[in-house]
Design goal:
The complex is a heterodimer. Chain A has helices at about 10-25, 45-50, 65-75, 95-105, 135-140, 165-170, 185-195, 215, 220-235, 240-250; strands at about 1-10, 30-35, 55-60, 80-85, 90, 110-115, 115-120, 125-130, 160-165, 195-200, 205-210, 265-270, 280-285. The two termini of chain A are about 35 Å apart. Chain A is α/β, with parallel strands linked by helices. Chain A has a 9-stranded mixed β-sheet, sandwiched between helices. Chain A has 2 domains: about 1-85, Alpha-Beta Complex (Spore Coat Polysaccharide Biosynthesis Protein SpsA, Chain A), CATH 3.90.550; about 90-285, Spore Coat Polysaccharide Biosynthesis Protein SpsA, Chain A, CATH 3.90.550. Chain A has 10 helices and 13 strands. Chain B is α/β, with parallel strands linked by helices. Chain B has a domain at about 95-299: Spore Coat Polysaccharide Biosynthesis Protein SpsA, Chain A, CATH 3.90.550. Chain B is about 30% helix and about 25% strand. In chain B, helix 2 links the parallel strand 2 and strand 3. In chain B, helix 1 packs parallel to helix 2. The chains are: A alpha/beta, B alpha/beta. At the A-B interface, helix 4, strand 7 and strand 8 of A face helix 4, strand 7 and strand 8 of B.
């Protein structure tokens, strides 16, 4: 069973589109929980409309975004977990693909997409990008944190990230409410202590770009919180010389980039084609 | 995006014949997006497998539909286009799918970029038999000279990089009319490819940086059962334009050149590297987006 949580607060304009992207997946084994922080923009009416399809929902003032998520996850019982913010959306095939992949690969504890999508305020997809995959050491050194220094490449798209309950519990079974905005990044840091992140080679969800979105206004705060998280792990940020050496290596054909000590291995899940199934292959990036 | 859009009328044709298992999801993928100025035409070849019941259910939302014996898939598409009145055109086979944003992205691109005559996706998506996305690839772009040399059909597997995915391709009526307003149904399999051959004579193909449609890989697919025949048809098309396939030595040079850093590609002469036009979204004052044409190069 897949359990999804949506924290909601005054995003009524997008909430229905988000909820329908969850409920219209046509997955019978789905558990959906919506935690609304006492919205005053009609959001509760939208939630009520779908309440018969929800495992749990409530609308009342709460201690904020991460507390709402923790409350939501405490109500879940599924084997696969994820959350989606009330302004983002899944693509129509997401859950069935996720279910297939977790079923086929017991070793996969968590995964995200290799192809993050971004959409605008009218649900139109604006961009698709091919990322390079993910690696624990690279993550702890700042590969997935947008900041100066030249080592950053891609963020881990939160709405495209799914994990097993066993990983969630091993990592503490909660989001860190001491933070204000970077709860996802801090969770990824704890997940990486336990398991590698696999990258699945199809799009899974769309992040909504809004000029005024929370993460946009608070990008600075988000970055500061992430940096504090990385400091706990104490891996050095690459020096200027290392960053430029890495850039120079990217000129080489992919096979020659696998310089021991510099190249990072990644795990990619992709489909082998007609009459075949999903396979795991190694990837590399510098 | 900035400001309200004057949505151009988009005409979509779905040819249908005994694909009832997939037809509903196809129709829904077109209709559920709610594109404000859609003309949707379904041409069924007298199916006997329940397709008609599906079409009946959606009949109110269709601009036109008919079910009568026809000459096959491409003649049905042609019959549909003969009825179409939209400014923008495309077709979607009854086992394939649009994505929830396809028509609005297409409408907006044609509304805001008047120089663009035809577009396709840089990210062709493949679906499994049960309609799940299983593969997506990024193509570097499209180029006339490269097309006529076999870049978009696997005659030479080192030169080929990817098909122009039919269901992700859309064009203006003016281009369709200048190209003769017809499909060449004497080529039973590669009619789409033949149409691209004529379009390329008239206009550049722009690659859009988002996925637009999914192609369903089926066990019993016309183009998969007779893939060799499709390739033969496609080669016949290219020969009409004086096909000059890359030889072994050129292929080897190309494979070496592909290892060059991206930055070097711009210094190679046109013909060794190819220029391409891409349509990507661009942020405007950190508040909204607009579609922009970007020049690219590939080897």
């Amino acid at each position: 069973m897949i359990s999804i949580v949506t924290p909601s607060f005054n995003q009524g304009r997008y909430l229905e589109s988000c909820m329908r992207s969850v409920l219209d997946q046509g997955l019978s084994d789905l558990e959906y929980i919506v935690i609304d922080g006492g919205s005053t923009d009609g959001s509760p009416d939208i939630i009520r409309k779908y309440s018969s399809q929800l495992r749990f929902w409530r609308s009342a003032p709460d201690a904020g975004y991460l507390a709402a998520l923790n409350e939501g996850f405490s109500k879940t019982s599924g084997e696969i977990l994820a959350w989606i913010n009330s302004d983002d959306k899944y693509v129509p095939w997401a859950f069935q693909v996720i279910a297939d992949v977790f079923k086929k690969f017991p070793q996969v504890q968590w995964l995200t997409t290799l192809f993050p999508l971004v959409m605008d305020e009218e649900d139109r997809v604006l961009s698709c990008r091919q990322t390079e995959g993910y690696n624990r050491t690279a993550f702890y050194r700042g590969r997935n944190l947008r900041r100066e220094g030249g080592f950053y490449s891609f963020v881990i798209q939160q709405e495209s990230t799914f994990w097993r309950r066993s990983l969630w519990e091993a990592a503490g079974g909660r989001l860190d409410e001491a933070l204000k905005v970077a709860g996802d990044f801090e969770l990824w840091a704890r997940f990486f202590e336990h398991a590698d992140l696999y990258a699945l080679a199809v799009p899974l969800a769309c992040f909504r770009f809004q000029g005024t979105s929370l993460s946009f206004e608070q990008a600075d705060l988000y970055r500061q919180e992430c940096e504090a998280v990385l400091e706990r792990y104490g891996l050095p940020e690459p020096s200027w010389a290392e960053v430029h050496l890495r850039r120079a290596l990217r000129i080489l054909p992919p096979r020659l980039r696998r310089v021991p000590g510099l190249a990072y291995p990644a795990k990619i899940i992709e489909h082998a084609g007609r009459n075949k199934s999903w396979t795991v292959r190694p990837g590399w990036f510098v | 995006m900035t400001g309200p859009i004057d949505w151009p009328k988009i005409s979509i044709i779905t040819p249908s014949f005994n694909q009832a298992a997939f037809l509903e999801s196809c129709l829904r993928s077109v209709l559920d997006e709610g594109y404000p100025n859609l003309e949707y035409i379904v041409i069924d070849g007298a199916s006997e497998d329940g397709s008609l019941e599906v079409i009946h259910r959606f009949a109110k939302q269709l601009s036109f539909w008919v079910s009568e014996p026809d000459q096959g898939n491409y003649p049905a598409v042609e019959k549909g286009f003969a009825r179409a009145t939209g400014e923008i055109m495309g077709w979607l086979n009854s086992d394939d799918l649009y994505l929830p944003w396809t028509l609005r992205v297409v409408g907006e691109i044609f509304a805001t970029l008047p120089e663009v005559q035809w577009i396709t996706s840089q990210y062709p998506l493949l679906l499994s038999e049960d309609g799940l996305a299983v593969q997506i690839r990024r193509l570097e772009g499209f180029n006339r000279r490269a097309f006529y040399r076999g870049r978009n059909v696997p005659l030479n597997r080192f030169f080929y990089t990817g098909f122009i995915q039919q269901e992700s391709t859309f064009w203006r009526r003016s281009l369709w009319e200048r190209a003769g307003s017809r499909l060449d149904v004497t080529l039973p399999l590669a009619c789409d490819f033949e149409l691209w051959g004529r379009f390329w004579q008239l206009a550049e193909l722009y690659g859009v940086g988002v996925p637009l449609a999914g192609f369903r890989i089926q066990k019993q697919q016309k183009t998969s059962l007779r893939f060799e025949d499709y390739l033969r048809d496609a080669e016949i098309v290219l020969q009409r334009y004086g096909l000059r396939k890359p030889g072994p030595s050129e292929t080897m040079v190309l494979r070496l050149l592909r290892r060059l850093p991206r930055a070097c590609v711009r210094w190679l002469p046109e013909g060794v590297a190819y220029s391409t036009k891409l349509i990507l979204s661009k942020e405007v004052e950190q508040r909204s987006f607009t579609w922009r044409v970007i020049e690219g190069r590939f080897i």
